[in-house]
Design goal:
By secondary structure, the chain is an all-alpha fold. It is built from 7 helices and no strands. The longest helix has 27 residues. It starts with 20 loop residues before the first helix and ends with a helix. The relative contact order is 0.18.
């Protein structure tokens, strides 16, 4: 019997919805960039746990990936992104200094940030990346051969607006 990953159906788009191929193509293209941002933010935050900018960048990228995954019909991939966000929100405060507003408290906690927390974030990133690649593979796309129409470089807000507009036009 073959082993089934607990997230094996994450790579499947929702079958009961008709998602425009353009939305899926944008999701794949933007998802690659977002995963790069997520990996960079985790690594940067690990190197400097007291720098809230890295935590905020990570949460922002995860939130955008979550919304894009849902819009493209990959609900469970969106749920995995949401779970990643939740871990950050619930487990990071005690050692990053975010629970205490004083800069001196954050500074003293930096050195004590448990590396296992960041190891866990990197594992979650690996899981998210693996599932994204599985989604791309199921769509018959690879990083080298992805056929995506030429689009301007979209900022995150523009992507959200484009996805929102496209989704609304299909309702």
């Amino acid at each position: 019997a073959s082993e089934r990953s607990p997230h094996s159906d994450i790579a499947q788009p929702v079958a009961d919805e008709e998602i425009a191929p353009e939305i899926i193509a944008i999701f794949i293209e933007e998802g690659e960039e977002l995963l790069e941002h997520i990996e960079h933010a985790v690594q940067s935050w690990r190197e400097n746990p007291g720098a809230a900018i890295h935590e905020k960048a990570l949460v922002r990228a995860l939130h955008t990936l979550k919304g894009s995954a849902h819009a493209a019909g990959f609900r469970q991939l969106g749920a995995l992104s949401h779970d990643f966000e939740t871990v950050i929100e619930t487990e990071s405060k005690p050692f990053t200094g975010a629970a205490n507003d004083t800069p001196s408290a954050a500074k003293s906690l930096d050195k004590e940030a448990p590396l296992h927390f960041f190891d866990g974030l990197l594992k979650r990133y690996d899981d998210l990346s693996e599932q994204f690649e599985a989604a791309r593979h199921k769509l018959g796309q690879s990083p080298d051969t992805t056929a995506i129409p030429s689009t301007p470089d979209l900022s995150e807000p523009a992507l959200v607006q484009l996805v929102t507009d496209s989704t609304a036009s299909h309702e």
